[in-house]
Amino acid sequence: MNKLCEAEIRKNIVLVEIGGELTLPLSVLNRNCEFRKKWEETYDKWHPEDSQKACIKAHRKAYNQRPEIKAQRKAHQQRPEIKAKQKAYQQRPEIKAQQKAYHQRPEIKAHRKAYQQRPEIKAKQKAYHQRPEIKAHQKAYKKACYQKKKLKKAGKK
Do residues 29 and 52 touch, judged by C-beta distance below 8 A? Predict the structure, then answer.
């Protein structure tokens, strides 16, 4: 039964349109393009909420990709009260525990390691660390650490 009979296909199309039971399994009928098109049209007619959800989802995605919307979202996320709220949320013990558990998972560790080994990422990191302001910041940090160690040793003697 590799080749489906056209009469059987037409009969099942009519059954789909009137909401009757199919004479063949749907997986078999879906092999026919004409039936599949009719099935999708009828399904959208009988279940409009699914097609509306897909339409709304596509519209929302297109809307959120607009540059002015991205700029608004970025400006909102940069506001001090929003940053403070996010920081407070991240500092909650249960959230910290969830994050720690997530980052301890072997597949996450492997993914992070693989990402860091990619040549373009290595080049990006190298370029970042070669910038003069970053070098100056690292030098100041190391100098401060050295001073702290020196003071600690002097305090012990």
Answer: no
Measured distance CA(136)–CA(141) in Å, rounded: 9
pLDDT digits 0-9 by tens, 108-146: 999 999 999 999 999 999 999 999 999 999 999 999 999
Residue 2: pLDDT over 60: no
Helices (H), the chain: 6-18, 26-29, 33-46, 48-64, 67-77, 80-91, 93-104, 106-117, 119-130, 132-156
Phi, psi values for residue 39, rounded to 5°: -60, -45
Would you give the DSSP letter of residue 56?
A: H
Question: Which are the contacts of 23, defined by CB distance < 8 A and separation ≥ 6?
Answer: 8, 11, 12, 15
Domain range for 42 is 6-49
In a domain, 148, yes or no: no
DSSP code string of 11-44: HHHHHHHHT---SS-HHHHTTSHHHHHHHHHHHH
Q: Within this chain, do residues 128 and 77 fall inside the same structural domain, yes or no?
A: yes
